[in-house]
């Protein structure tokens, strides 16, 4: 997939007989659908949004040119994206998971520890899963006391290891 696109949802079903689609949002900001004029599919084609409604945990969209249940059914399972430049701006010191996954991790002494391969959401704080060469994955809590520096542009983070984390 194009790294300039970010997934914001998946079309899970038609909604009604007039071509509306039901989207399961993959974003912490579902209100973005009301501010977005178009969505991009994996093949690069664009879908213009005509109207937006919210129903329970879903976003209901009327898309230009999608006028029947069959038209909407043809979109079932497709992921919808926006351009990375259109991502909701986060406050300083906050990052999207897709920006963190793949970063190289170093200790405060400069020792290479591995790469972040996953982020676990525990409720109180995220936990970074770091794959290490020939070792069990290392779990690092995403806390200011542990994560000393995140440099997305340079592709790495610096962490303070604690005895119980090693």
Question: Could you walk me through the main structural features you see in this protein, from its secondary elements to its overall organization?
Answer:
It is a single chain. The chain has 166 residues and is mostly beta strands. The chain has 2 domains: 5-86, Beta Barrel (Elongation Factor Tu (Ef-tu), domain 3), CATH 2.40.30.60; 97-165, SH3 type barrels. It has 3 helices and 12 strands. It has helices spanning 32-35, 69-73, 97-100; strands at 5-15, 20-25, 38-40, 46-55, 58-63, 79-83, 104-107, 112-121, 126-131, 138-141, 147-151, 156-159. It has a 6-stranded antiparallel sheet with strand order 3-4-5-2-1-6. This is Ribosome maturation factor RimM. One of its GO terms (molecular function) is ribosome binding. Keywords: Chaperone, Cytoplasm, Ribosome biogenesis, rRNA processing.
């Amino acid at each position: 997939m194009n790294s300039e696109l970010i997934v914001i949802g998946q079309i899970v079903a038609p909604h009604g007989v007039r071509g509306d689609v039901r989207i399961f949002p993959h974003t912490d900001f579902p209100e973005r659908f009301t501010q977005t004029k178009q969505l991009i599919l994996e093949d690069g084609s664009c879908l213009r949004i005509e109207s937006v409604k919210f129903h329970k945990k879903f976003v209901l969209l009327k898309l230009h040119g999608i006028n029947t249940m069959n038209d909407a059914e043809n979109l079932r399972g497709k992921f919808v994206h926006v351009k990375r430049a259109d991502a909701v701006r986060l406050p300083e010191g906050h990052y999207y998971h897709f920006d963190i996954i793949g970063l190289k991790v170093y200790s405060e002494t400069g020792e290479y520890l591995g790469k972040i391969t996953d982020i676990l959401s525990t409720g109180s704080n995220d936990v970074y899963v770091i794959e290490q060469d020939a070792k069990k994955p290392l779990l690092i809590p995403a806390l200011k006391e542990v994560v000393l520096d995140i440099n997305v542009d340079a592709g790495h983070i610096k962490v303070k290891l604690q005895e119980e984390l090693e």
